[in-house]
Write a structure and sequence with these properties.
Blueprint lengths: L1 H15 L3 H34 L5 H11 L4 H12 L14 H37 L4 H11 L1 H16 L3 H7 L9 H11 L2 H31 L9
Helix pairs in contact: 1-10, 2-5, 2-6, 2-7, 4-5, 4-8, 5-6, 5-7, 5-8, 7-10, 9-10
Length: 240
């Protein structure tokens, strides 16, 4: 217990003193995860909203595939991206493996199914309230999807925050495609895993505290947005 207390005290001092290696790791994590969230959200929001309003042969199969992708282990996705970006892969000539760009690609692909699934449920809930009215006004499926997403802006923001939280807490895929190179591709989660294996508990604990703080802030913001949605009559079950 005394060793843990000493490590925790040292970790706190690293945060208070704004240790350079700590700051570099945190900034890279925010940059990679933020970029991946924007890319993944731009694809997932449109795809999920389209799935909510579209009806075509094989629709149920596509929805089932999307739900299956939600359970894909991040290490499997990392392996797929690694094979694509390796020298023997189809994208090997781009030289992206073991770079922050490769990590962004992996995290983007990781959050697309999550964003799409949440966006689909959001639009389906909104359709139940005002979809018939939009149809009566002559709005097509894509127009309805776009209008409902714009109307449910708090819900969309909640989706983005959820996706960012998923991306920044990911470790398997980014370690595979990023290589965990010091000063280049080492983010908070991979650093925690490495420093723990090396026995450098203070730095691992410091990064863990920062990571938990980021996730806690995201959860608080999401809770506030959900409360505001419920206050204006939005269906709470959309995020259950």
């Amino acid at each position: 217990m005394s060793d843990f207390a000493a490590s925790l005290a040292t970790a706190a001092s690293l945060i208070v003193e704004v240790e350079p290696r700590l700051v570099q790791t945190v900034l890279l994590s925010m940059q990679v995860s933020g970029t991946a969230t924007l890319i993944g959200a731009s694809l997932g929001l449109g795809f999920g909203a389209w799935l909510a309003v579209a009806r075509f042969p094989g629709h149920a199969v596509l929805v089932g595939a999307l739900n299956t992708m939600l359970a894909m282990p991040s290490v499997v996705l990392g392996l797929v991206v690694y094979l694509l970006l390796s020298r023997a892969g189809p994208l090997g000539e781009w030289g992206l493996l073991f770079t922050p760009t490769a990590m962004v690609i992996a995290q983007s692909l990781l959050v697309v199914p999550l964003v799409a699934a949440l966006a689909r449920r959001l639009v389906l809930s909104a359709l139940a309230e005002g979809g018939d009215q939009l149809s009566s006004l002559g709005a097509g499926p894509l127009t309805r999807a776009a209008l409902l997403l714009a109307h449910e802006r708090y819900g969309v923001l909640t989706v983005l925050l959820t996706a960012f939280g998923r991306a920044i807490a990911e470790v398997g895929a980014v370690m595979i495609v990023g290589g965990n190179i010091d000063g280049v591709t080492r983010v908070m989660t991979t650093t925690i895993a490495l420093e723990t294996s090396k026995g450098d508990l203070p730095l691992a604990l410091a990064l863990g505290i920062v990571l938990l703080s980021v996730v806690a802030v995201l959860n608080a913001v999401i809770g506030l947005l959900q409360w505001r949605q419920q206050g204006r009559g939005a269906p709470a079950e959309a995020w259950a």
